[in-house]
Amino acid sequence: MGKRVLIALGGNAMTTSDGSAAPADQWHAVRRAMTHVAALMSAGHQVVLTHGNGPQVGNLILKNQLAAHTVPPVPLDWCVAQTQGTIGNLIMNALEQAPAPEPARVATVVTRTLVDADDPAFQRPTKPIGRYFDEDEARRFEEQGQIWRRFERGWRRVVASPDPVEVLDAPAAIALMELGYTVVAAGGGGVPVVRDPDGTLRGVEAVIDKDLAADVLARAVRATDLVIATDVPHAVVGFGGPDAKPVEAVTVRELRELQDAGHFASGSMGPKVEAALRFVEQGGERAVITSLEHIGEALSGNIGTRVSRGVEE
Ligand SMILES: Nc1ncnc2c1ncn2[C@@H]1O[C@H](COP(=O)(O)OP(=O)(O)O)[C@@H](O)[C@H]1O
Ligand SMILES: NC(=O)OP(=O)(O)O
């Protein structure tokens, strides 16, 4: 029987790995991703999609900043909403064109995600966005009050990334799913909003981790499986070292121990493992972390880091 599968598409599915996010690269990457998604749909699974936006939202806020003397800049949460629109548009075009017995009907929901105004993440920016720069350029941006960090491939701006509490527009996604649409929702983790004491919602400048938001969305839409599609086939213990060992079939208990022991890097594999753990711990059937080209095999249980509640099937 077909499953209801939430697929979280990582940066490699959206653009090239250098973070430049040129339009042609984005279109090429999304088209490739959608051939894999369409294959799952053709196999009878109902798919819900979410996606990252780190390179895109960073580039967009930078453009706002560079053009600030000419046109009024918009805040980061507006940029998140804009990237949901542009990436959702690419996904809709690509999925509707992908080879499948029937053309897909696809809808993108501009989605707000509730966060806690007191989340300590607002005081401690960790989320890398935009393209890489060299140190001199990064230092110039720092003089304007931004926070930049050195990564392996260069310097990148980092912004606050609060924990997602609730995907507020999940009911709209569910309504569209019930009408037969394949839905794209909570792109870029969702537009971060806080609830003020008078009950009104207010956008806040942050970028939510898309894997953690994918877990919250997956539970809201009652997905059976959460698939986190990235550019490596497994989460690995001892990553990059001589004793590197892929994590394959694993229970939440075993994986929680590995996570607590610090085996997965905080800016990359860590949130994916955390999202997979939270999903299964809170009642989801199964979570898988694998590379995009393996998502079909991952669902049939042959590849990937496959997280289950008890003894793996
Ligand atoms: N323990 C680990 N196991 C596997 N990959 C890891 C690990 N630690 C860090 N990584 C890195 O995490 C990357 C995937 O994370 P990320 O780049 O954030 O993905 P995406 O943009 O696809 O969401 C892999 O390309 C790999 O280099
Ligand atoms: N919002 C988010 O987590 O995007 P990336 O996965 O592209 O970093």
From TrEMBL:
Entry keyword annotation includes Cell inner membrane: no
Reaction it catalyzes: hydrogencarbonate + NH4(+) + ATP = carbamoyl phosphate + ADP + H2O + H(+)
Domain of life, source organism: Bacteria
What are the UniProt keywords, alphabetically? Kinase, Transferase
Question: Its Gene Ontology biological processes?
Answer: L-arginine deiminase pathway
Domain spans labelled Aspartate/glutamate/uridylate kinase = 3-291
Report whether Transferase shows up as a keyword of the record. Answer: yes
Q: Name one GO molecular function term.
A: carbamate kinase activity
Q: Name one GO cellular component term.
A: cytosol
**Pfam families associated with the record:** AA_kinase
Q: Which PANTHER family match?
A: CARBAMATE KINASE (PTHR30409), CARBAMATE KINASE-RELATED (PTHR30409:SF1)
Q: What family does this belong to?
A: Belongs to the carbamate kinase family.
Name it.
Carbamate kinase
Q: What is the lineage of its organism?
A: Bacteria, Bacillati, Actinomycetota, Actinomycetes, Streptosporangiales
